[in-house]
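Figure-free illustration: sequence to structure, shown twice.
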Amino acid sequence: MAENKIPVVILGAGGYAVMVHEILSAYSNYLVLGCTDKALGLSERSLGEGKSLRILGDDDILPELAERHPGLRGVLALGPELMDVRARLVCTLDRVGISPVTVVHPRSIVSKLAKLGGGTVVSSGAIINAGTETGSHCALAAGAVIDHDTQLGTNVFIGQGAHVSSYVRLGENVAIELGACVNSRVCVGEGARVTGGAFVNTNVPDHAVVMGVPARVVRYVDA
C-alpha cells in the first residue's frame, strides 16, 4: 500500500527525470511524488500510457514537501550542463533535511565490493567495478564504465559511454562527458570538465575544461 512506501521527490523535470522515475518504478518500496522544476514550463510530463510525472513546483517547495511527507527522500535528475545547479541542490537537500535515495538500474552491474554514496544514480548498462567508491549524488549515464579502485567525489557526473580507468581520483563537481576516457591513476581536480570524446592521460587542474586526444586545457570555469 502507498502508506508503506518511501516517498521520493525527483529534482529536475527533463528527460533525465523520466529515466530516474522509470528506474524507481522498478522497486515496489518507493512512491514517486513528482518532481521539482525551476522552469515550471509544464504542469506535468507525459510518460506514455496515461502515466505522468507531476511537477510539484520549483525548488522552493522542498521544505514544505519534507514537512508534509515524513521520511522524504530526494534524488537529482539533472545533466552535466547543469553541474552548478546540481551542486546547489546538494546543499539544499542537506539544509532541508531530505535524505538522498540511491537509484540503481536493474540492468547495470555494480560490484558487491564497490561503495555507492547516497543519491547516486546508476543507469542502464553502466558498470562499477570492485574497490570503487562514489561520493554522494554521483551519476553514471547509460553505458558508463568505472574500473576498480577509483574514487569519485560528491556530485560527479559520468556521461554516456564514458570510461574511467583504475586508481583514478575525481574531485567534487566533476563532469566527464559522453564517450570521454580517463586513463589509469589520473587525478581530475574539483569542478573540472572533460568534454565529449576526450582522452585524459595527465592530471587535470581544478576547474579546468579539457578537450582533445590527448586532452589539453582549453579554458577554466569560474571557481
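We now fold a second protein in the same way, so the two outputs can be compared directly.
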Amino acid sequence: MKRVSLSYLFIALILVGFACEKKAEINTPNQSATQTTVSSAQEEVPVDVRIHLVKFSDYQCPACKYFVPFVNQLKEDFGDDIYVEYKHFPLSMHPYAHVAARSVEAARLQGKKKEMHDLIFAGQEQWSQGNAEAIFIGYARSLEMDVEKFQQDMNSADMNRIVMADRREGRDLEVGSTPTFFVNGVKLESNPSNYPAFKALVEQYAD
C-alpha cells in the first residue's frame, strides 16, 4: 500500500482483520486478544466507565477511516458507559500522517479536536495526494480558529512530542498495524469488518 491510489482500492476488498501495516513492526500473536496496560498521558479516564476503548490510529490509513463510523456508533449505543481515547500511530509509509496528527493536536488547543479529527478523516483521499498542510490550514479557517496560532502549533515541537509519545507507547505495546484497539487493557488482535461483530467483540472484553 505504498501508493495512495492503491490504498483506496483495498477498501473495496475489506476482509476480517484488515489494517494498514508497517512491515517492520508487524505482530503475529497466537491469541485473539492480549492482556496489557494502556496508559494515558493526556486524558483522565473516568473511573465509572464500563468500556475504555483505545484506538491507535493513522489519519492516512484507509482502514482507520473505515472504523470511524463503528466507533461513533459505539458511542451512541453505550453512551456514558464508554470512553474512547485516540492515540497517534503515524506510519512511515504514509507521508502526511504525522502532520495530520499534529494538526489534530493543534486544534485541541483551540477546543476543536473532534471537529478537526472528523474533517481530516472525511478529506483523507484529497490531502493524501499532496498539499496536506495547506488543506489542514483551510480546515482550521473553516472552523473559525485562529489560523496563525494553529499553523504555529501544528509545526511546534510540543505537538511533535505528543504525537511521538503516543507512537512510542504503541511500539511498547507491540502495535504493528492500524487501527489497533484496546478494550479495558485487552488488545484486539483482529478487527471484524462489520459493526455488529465489532460491537460484540468489544462487549466481550467489557467489565
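Summary for the second example: Confidence is low (pLDDT under 50) at residues 1-17, 23-32, 34-41.
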